[in-house]
Each structure stands twice: as structure tokens, then as C-alpha cells.
Fold this protein.
Amino acid sequence: MIERPVRHLFPPADVAIGLVGAMILVPFELWSLRAGGPTIWVVTISVVMTSGLLLGVVIGATSTLAGVARLGPWPRAAVHASASLAATVPVARHLFDGAFASTLPGAALAPVWVPLVALGLLTLALRVGLVAATHVKTRALTGALLLAGAIGIEWINRNVKRSELPDVHTMLVFATIVAAGLSMRLLLPRRAWPRDPDPYVALGRLLTAATLTAFVVSLRFGLTTSSTRMAVTTGGLHTRLLVRLYRATLDLDRDGYASVLGGGDCDEFDATISPGVAEVPGNEIDENCDGRTSEDAAVRRFTAARAEHKADLGRFNERPDVARLLARTRDMNVVLVAIDTLRADVLADEASNRSDFPNLFALLDSGRHFRRTFAPSAGTDLSMSGVLTGQIDPFATEQPTLAEGMRERGRATFAVIPSEVIRYVGKAMLTRGLDHHERLVNDLHERDVGSYLTGSRTLELGMRFVDAHRGEHGERPFFVWLHFFDVHEHHEVKLAALRDRFGDLGDLDRRGRYRMLVRAVDDQIGALEAGLRERGLTDNTIVVLVSDHGEGLGEDPRLPENHGKYVYNALVHVPLVIRVPGLPPGVVDHPVSLLDVYPTLFELIGGPAPDVDGESLLAHLFADASQELVSGVRPLPLNETDQYGVVLWPHKLLVRREDDLVELYDLANDFAERDDLSAKMPEQVDALRAAYAALSGVEIDRTSRGRRARERIAAAGADE
């Protein structure tokens, strides 16, 4: 960036910095999308090159401004650095939204100080760089350092938390382009850079025209098929981020969705019509762009069928043998065991799994094992709260929580809950109805980093409560919820902690570490079972095992690095076991939801069937229940920030609203979700859309503001 008498509003040499930087970046992105095809390549080239062009224009504008104002060295560097505010201001708005990040000092004022600090540091760097660039001896060195910096930024962008903080990653894309372009400016001979009237200027204008033409064409005709959108979403990094950016920029009605680049908005000029809007009953308008209205006949049929099925379940409870069971379980203890982040496929009935996790399989074999259980979300907040309320939107429920129901029916209530779970879900929801709870600190040394095992302490606190309760209250029943968190921390627990427990482990990959943490929790399940037997409680205690969600272990590019965002089976297929003393064990293959735990336990402890989204599984505990009762057609909800879905066995529908991306899978034959049938079976897609429309809705807001809002709602429900 060189100041000189102004002959161009955007000096060609400065505009070329952005174009050259983008040209360097394009091959790397094309390589990551090499299987995408020509359409995706055109979109990739156009969005990356347009981004470089815009950066070059900004650099040229700041150069012109500094030249016109005849600023000194430091003000000139500050003017150049001020362009960074376009990226740092929006990034700072959400940088500290995480539950842990929002508690850090200065988080509330981050939108102010983060851009200012970035501006100051960049001003200093540019001032030093400009000085170095003007000396022949240091010019090449400065260029080499900038090139190394560009490579380093690119590596970080592609390898560090690439599924998280999209705003930060987008900012790093622009940083890479600028650093790469500036490095070429310094490393290439000066005569290689365009100066009017050099012929390079004409070439630059031609390149600019071609870039803008390709970009405009891509906006309208790019990513119009599901296959191209899926390739960009799962295979690209820079393309995915830049497509997201340009959709947000060209969202004309500011409703959060756009129609350009294959986006899902069906009315770009009406904010009341978009994929994220709830349907308004009775107006015959398709508000959410799914192709149907709330009064759709198919939606009404699903709603009516669900009501009829619930009535049938209620009549089942009148059977004499069922009534006798409920009379016996009314005064039983209840132990709810939650193993955070436990995938159901880890407990697939295979020899290696049985060998590694004998205690978990002993529990599975002693109760009713629901092998097709789906969590309502891939995050603890909705899923665990759904277990406690039976509701798709757990924070807006008018029903008592599970612990409140247990207490109302004479039970002492207690839970051991990891601090990280309380931090992310909210204390008001998780502790409603608990007489006492222990907040287990799972991240003593560094917030949100569990570097040590906590399972034994979880069990110790739980059994300590049981002993104290029995000593004080005798035969009064209790409800205990133990939330084991070690599996969640599989990527953070130090290997030394595992070696202390299991001896020399050798080198463990990510999946190996995950399984070792499951083994660690398996030990605690064995100790829990032994503790119940030693205290004579096995025959008077209902035990329920759940997991709140699964985990991505790097096996599928569609999955995030850990969990959340999407609802593929690796993230929402979870184990569920219900063991009721006196009932024979067995395997249930009918699909169910974690939301069903709540009404099932309510009925087992003598409460009336609550009016919630979940359905009682009581009939599934009896081998002679009619097939019509246990195999009724029932849609199961799946909701996440970037994707929603519904299971209507054997099919599963997945929709990404922002990308207008629809997937349909036959889970009976393709549980790994590899063969998308949406194009081949449009009628089935419509049927599952209707099934989802018949379910309750939920808004997922995991920002600090959203968590505070739901905490207030949950607290208000407790007061009522």
C-alpha cells in the first residue's frame, strides 16, 4: 500500500492485492471440493475472487483516503487498519456468546473493546510493516513473513474448530487473502504490479469484469440442486463460509434467510414468510416455506392420530395386570442414570462391546432396552430438559418437571449435576423440584475443560445421599439423578488419568479415547449396581439409563467436531433402558423418543398421564401388549440450530432451512444415512413434512441472551 498522487479512486496496485490473494486461495478450496463438479467450482471461484476484489477495493479506498488527507505515518496506518472494523465489529458481537465465554471478564463490553484492540494491534503491525516494506533489505523478509502468516492462518482455519465460530472463520478467510496478496506485492518485482497505463491494468479490469459476472450468475443460478448445496456444506470451508456471508448480506427483508446461492427463503421481500417462521393457523399461507399450511389435511390427520393413540395408551393402563404393576411401583425408588454423550452404537450387541462394557450390558440385559431411541436434540439443553419435562420446548412447559412430580408424590429428590451442564442448560430448569443437589465441579483447573475423571465422585455423592436419606427417613422412597460426564470430556481428559485407571494404553486415536471414557463410566455403573444390591434396594428401585445425545468422532464430514448443530443418527441415536423390578427384560425395536421417559415415570409412580409431547412407554414394558398399541405410526421430533428433522419409521427427514437442503433416509436399510432418497421419493418427503408440522415447535437460541431468557422462563415455571 503506497500513497502517491491520486489518479484512481481505487488504485489498481492496491485492488490487485485482493485479487492476487484470492487467486492464491482458490486452488486450495477447489482441491477440497474436487469431487463437486463444474457448478460448484464456478461458485467457489466467483465467491472467493469477489471477496478478494472487495478487499482490494477497500485497500485501495483507504490508500486513496490516506493520500488525499496527506496523513503522517501513524494516522496512515490507522486508516488502513480501520478497514478491519467491518469484520471485527460483527465478530465481537457473538464472540463471547458461549456459556463459559460469557462469564469471562469484559465479555459484556466485548463489542466495544475487541474491535478497538484489534484496530490498535493492526495499526502497529501495519506501521512496522510499512517501514520494513520501504527498505530493500527487509522488503523480501517482510513478504516471506506475510506468506508464512497466510499459510498459518489457512492451516488454523481448516484444522481448528472448523465447525464452530463461523464468524471468526470467515474473518480468517479475509485475513488469509490480504496476507497472501500483500506477500506477493512484496515478493514479486515491482514492475509486475499494475500502474496506469501499464497493460496489467487492462488485464485487471478484464479479471474484475469476469469475476463480477460469474458472481452475479452464481447468485441466481448457483447451488440450485441439493447435491451441490450438500457438497459445499460438507466439503468446502471457505465456500461454505462465504456463501453464508453473502446470503446474510443479501437478505433483503432481514429475516435471517435469503434466496440467493440456493438459500431457503421463498419470499425475499416479506420477513413474515421465511423458513424460520411458525405457521399461523387458519390463514392458508405457507409462512415457513415448507410447501404446506397449518391447516393441511395431512397435518390434521397426524394430529388426530396422535390424540387417538394417546387415548388408547390411557385405556391400556386399566388392564388388571397393569393396574397391579402400578400399585406396586407407586412407592418404588427411582434412579435416573444419565451418561452424557453416549452414542447408542457403542452399545450395539457385539462381542467387543460386551467385553469392553460388561456392566452397561448387564444393565441392558436386565431391563427393557429400547434400541431405537432418538434424542430430541443433539445438545444437552433441549435433550436433558426434555427428559425432565417430556416437552419438545421444555422451557415453556406448564407441567411440573420430573423432580417436581417425584416430590409431589412423596419422594425425596436429589441429583448430582456437573457444573458445565448447569452452566449450559440453566440452574432453574435442572434443579426444579430437587430437595438437594450437588454441583459437581468437572472443570476445576480450567473452565469447560474436564481434564480428570469425575465418575467415581458422582457415584460417591449419590450413594452418600441414599445412605443419609435411609438413615433419616427409613422407607420413604427417593428419586436420584446421577449425571455422568466423563464421556463428554473424551477429548479433554488427560491420558495420565486414564493410565491411572487402566494402565498403559499405548497410542489412542479419538475413537479409542472415547471408548476408554465409556469404560471408565462402565466401572461406575457396575459400582452403582453393587451399591443397590448391598443396600437391599434392587427389588424396590426403578432404574432408567439415558444419554442426552451422541457425538461426532470424525467419521463423517457432515458431522460437527463434537455434537450439536445437526441431527444425524450419530448425534441423536442414544441408549434407553428402563428396568422395573418384577418385569421381564427384553428388547424393544419400536422407535421412541427421550421425551417418553417423563410420562412413563409419571405413570409408574402413580401420577396421571401428563399432557406433554412425549408418550408413555408403559405398554412396551409388557410383552403381550397389542401390536397396534406399541407399533402405531408416530413422528419423533429432532431439532437443532442448523437442521431439523423427524423420524416416522422407517423414514427420517432432515432439513437445513438456511441451505434449503432436504434429505430422506430409509433407516431400516440405511441407518448410517448414506443414500438420500429425497429426489426419488417426493411423496414421502411431503408426508414427513406434514408429520413434522403436526409437532410442537421450539426456538433454539444458545447465545448468552437466549440462555438468560429461558432461565427466566424456567424459574417462573418453578414459582408457579
